[in-house]
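1st attempt posting a full record on here, be nice pls
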Amino acid sequence: MALIQLDLPPGVYRNGTDLQTAGRWRDSNLVRWHDNTLRPIGGWRARSDTATASKVRGIHAWIDNSSDRWISAGSYNKLYIYNSGGTQYDITPIGLTAGNEDALNPVGFGTASYGLEEYGTPRKEASTITPATTWSMDSWGQNLVSCSISDGKIYEWSLVTGTPAAVIANAPTGCRSILVTEERFLFALGAGGNPRLVQWSDREDNTTWTPSATNEAGSLELQTSGRIQCGVKVQNQSLILTDTDAHVATYSGPPYVYGIERVGTSCGIISTQAVAVVDIGAIWMGRRSFYTYSGGAVTEVSCDVADYVFSDINISQISKACAVSNANFGEIWWFYPSSSSNENDRYVVFNYTDGTWAIGSMARTSGVDSGVYRQPIIASATDKKLYEHEIGFNYDGVEPFAESGPISIGNGENVMSVTEMIPDEKTQGDVDATFKTRFYPNDVERTYGPYNMSNPTSLRFTGRQVRLRVEGSNANDWRVGVNRLEVKAGGRR
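the predicted structure (as C-alpha cells):
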C-alpha cells in the first residue's frame, strides 16, 4: 500500500480542457484559500431591514466632520442614504431623470450595421446597447456628490436628511461620471455629452467651472476612440478609464492645471463600476481579461479562470458588472451576469496578495469595502437590501464547496483501489468529502460519498483518476489542508 498526498495548490484553475485542470482545484463556491488552507468565506446579514425600491447600482460610504457614518445608494430612479443605525432616507433629487434598471438591447430589423448577418432576418445583436443606469459618488468634504449616468447632472447633498440632493450650480450636464481628485478638484467625466471630455471645477469650489485668470477651472479632451466610463484616485493620480484604453490626469498647476496622458491601450473597462482601488493600485475587468495600474503603464493580470468567466457572460447586461474590494483578505470581487441571466448571479475573486482566483454564485449589484464600517457592505439583487459581509457562516441555505480536477491515483495504466483517507482538517466532522472516479478521461463518472471526515476515513472505490469534492457540513469556520489517500494496485481494466 502507498499514501498519496492530495496536495493541490491554492486557487481555482478553469482554463482549457478538463484534463488541463489535473491536480488543481477546478470549481468552487463560497470558499477562499488563506494561509494556504481551504476555508469558507464569511456569511452575511442585513444591514437594514428597509429595502430599496429597485436594485442598487452604486454605493459610497463616508464619515462626516462629526464622526457620523453614512452610506449612499443609488438605483435607476432613486438616491438613498442610510445613517449608522441603518435608517433609510430618500434624498432623490427633484427632477431626476429616471434611467434603465436593465440594459436595453434593441434587436430586430434595422438595429445593427448594414451588411451584418443574413438579409431578411432580425438582427441578433444591436450595434448600440443602452446600459443599465449606474451612479458615481464621492465625498466633497463632508458632503456627498453624485451623478447618475442616465441623468447626467451633478448633485450635492449636505447631510440634511429631510432635504433631497440638489444640482451643483454652474456644473456641466450630460456627464457620465464624476471624481473628486486628491487636489480637491471635482472632475466631470464625459461632460456636456462629449464622451471624451474631462472638465474640472476650480480647486475647493465646485460651483466655478468657467476658466479665468483667477481660478484653476479647465477642461481637456482625451485623444481616444473610446468613451469615458469612470475615474478613480490611484497613486496620487487620477486614472480615467474608457471602454478602450486608460489615461492618467496629473496636476501640474497653473496655467495648464492638469496634463493627461494615455497609459494603456486595448485595456478598456467593461462597465462603469468594474474597478477597485487597493494598496497595489487599481484593478479592473476588461472585455477578455483583467488589468492593473499602479503607476507607469497598465499591465494585464494573468487569470486562471478567464475561459470560464468570459465564455459564459451576458454581454448585453455587462454594464451591471461591479467590483468590490475586500482588503482584509487581499481580495477583489467582481459580480457579473452569466449568459443565462439578466442580473448579476456570479462572482470571480482575485487574491492580489498571492495571485490566486476563485469563482462562485452570488446575486449582488454594488458594494463598498470595510473602512468606514467594520465589514464590507454589498447590495443584494434579490431582496434589494444592503448586507454586511464576512459575518458568521450563514449562506441562505447554500453550502460552500471546492472540487478538484482529475487527480491521477495510479501510473496511468494500473487501476488503483482506495481504501482509506487520512484527512487534514481543523476540526473533525466539519467537512464532508465526495470522490468521483473514472477509468478513462471520457469514461462514465462514478460518485462515492459524501463521507463525513474522521481520522481515518474508510473508503472503497477503484479507478485511474479521481476528483475530490469537499463541502462544509456545519456552519463553522472549517479548514482543509493536505489530505492523504491510502491506495493499492487493483489490476488492469
